[in-house]
Amino acid sequence: MSDCLFERVERCFVQAETFFKRPFTRPEVSLKLRGQRAGVAHLHENKLRFNLELFEENTEDFLHQTVPHEVAHLVAHQMFGERIAPHGHEWQLIMRGVYELAPLRCHTYAVKRRQVTRYIYHCPCASEFPFSAQRHSLVRQGRRYLCRQCRQTLVFSGETRLE
């Protein structure tokens, strides 16, 4: 099924080459993107990364909108250089002119959020502060965080919870 994604990337490049009458360097394409983003264009590495899970759940729209969106970033970079805004005028022109698509910045796919552990910190004014694992680790390495109300150091309560 992912073959159709690779084929769509190629068709998008051929479409841009026909429109601009010039060749474009093909990127490395990866299906190892995770999280909330559907796709990412790494301009300097000439690489596209796509979220396989979101692709499988939203195949039709993904092929229609997301793939051209990411290819347009690489085409804009190769055409206009690196001083352009990611979703700026040049990228929008490519989305409208080459692909005849609305230049939408974000997808609307349903994204399953994974459960994360929160480390509960308290202060003397009884406020509760759920810390991420990364912030909790920084505290264990010596970093201090203060309550914005009472300005006292936040202290780990020993409690955790899944969110």
Description:
- This protein is of the alpha+beta class and 163 residues long.
- It has 2 domains: 3-97, Zincin-like; 117-162, no CATH class.
- The protein contains 5 helices and 6 strands.
- A 3-stranded mixed sheet has the order 1-3-2.
- α3 crosses α4 (89-97).
- The longest helix has 22 residues, at 59-80.
- It is elongated and about 65 Å long.
- 22% of the residues are buried.
- The mean pLDDT is 95.
Question: What is the element layout, followed by pairings?
Answer:
Blueprint: H1 3-20, E1 28-30, E2 39-42, E3 47-50, H2 52-57, H3 59-80, H4 89-97, E4 117-122, E5 128-131, H5 133-140, E6 155-162
Parallel strand pairs: 1-3
Antiparallel strand pairs: 2-3, 4-5, 4-6
Helix pairs in contact: 1-3, 3-4
Quick overview of this protein structure:
The protein is an alpha+beta fold and about 160 residues long. The protein has five helices and six strands.
Mean pLDDT: 95
Low-pLDDT ranges: none
- Calculate the terminal CA-CA distance, rounded to whole Å: 33 Å
CATH superfamily placement of the largest domain: Metalloproteases ("zincins"), catalytic domain
Structural class comes to alpha+beta
User: Which strands sit side by side, in order, in the main sheet?
Assistant: 1-3-2
Shape: elongated
Count the E strands. 6
CATH top level class name of the largest domain: Alpha Beta
Helical content class: 25-40%
- Strand content range: 15-25%
GO molecular function: metallopeptidase activity
Protein name: SprT family zinc-dependent metalloprotease
Pfam families: SprT-like
InterPro entries: SprT-like_domain
